[in-house]
Amino acid sequence: VFILTIFAATGLSRWIKAPAPFAIAGALFLLALGLPRAIQLTAQNIRGLPNQSGEVFGASPEMWSALRQHVAPDERVANNPLFLQDMTPWPVNISWALFGNRPSCFAGRELALPYTALPRARLAEIEAQFERVFAGKEQPDDVRALATRYQCRVAVVTAQDGAWQHDPFASSPYYKLVDERGDAWRIYRVTEAGLQAAAPNDQ
Fold it and tell me: What mean pLDDT do residues 96-115 have?
């Protein structure tokens, strides 16, 4: 759709500048090719795209409001970069982006790619590390890295995360539970041990 729009616009601009039968025919042809999908996208946007995460998404402002009570405006927050990933056609961290109002330690590949200069290989390592932690499949040093290397002052685990059943923050000396809603989320704040554990290479 995007590519056809560009070529159709180019054809129309040439037509306006200097009418030419081939340009007109080409523009109308490209416009016709893109029209069915454009109508489909418009209809989907009007109807909305219902999914199972809708109810959780609707309640997430309450979670972020509670989280903001425990983190300063310039402190970083860790949450699952894949939280509610099916709310959009691409797996962006939409709940944090709209309601978090706090910096993220790692908001996901789709947001990290345009806003950081990290090499792709390093970005993939960080992405895998955060996804492991919030899937409840962390490796021994992962939670410490969140507290020290990435300076995640607060972490939030939700009932949709794999970490809800196998919570690496609950057993970590680097975080302590400061708030929770039993069936929905837990909020952890970094401990003194976490603040003091940074090694020289944790930059």
Answer: 91
Mean pLDDT of 6-17: 76
Residue partners of 165: CB distance under 8 A and separation at least 6? 136
Give the per-residue pLDDT at 111: 87
Q: Mean pLDDT over residues 70-84, rounded?
A: 95
Element housing 152 (H / E): strand 152-158
For residue 59, what are the contacts with CB-CB under 8 A and spacing of at least 6?
184
CB of 84 closer than 8 Å to CB of 55: no
Residue 203 pLDDT more than 60?
no
Give the tens place of pLDDT for each residue, 117-139: 889 999 999 999 999 999 999 99
Displacement of CA 127 from its chain's centroid (Å): 11
Q: How many CB atoms lie within 10 A of CB 61?
A: 13
Q: How far is CA 47 from CA 68, 84, 87, 124, in A?
A: 33, 20, 14, 35
Give, in order, the Cα–Cα distances in Å from 106 to each of 17, 51, 136, 192. Answer: 48, 25, 17, 22
Cα gap 120→106, rounded to integer Å: 14
Give the Cα separation of 142 and 150 in Å (integer).
10
Q: Considering only CA atoms, which of 151, 152, 129 is closest in space to residue 142?
A: 129
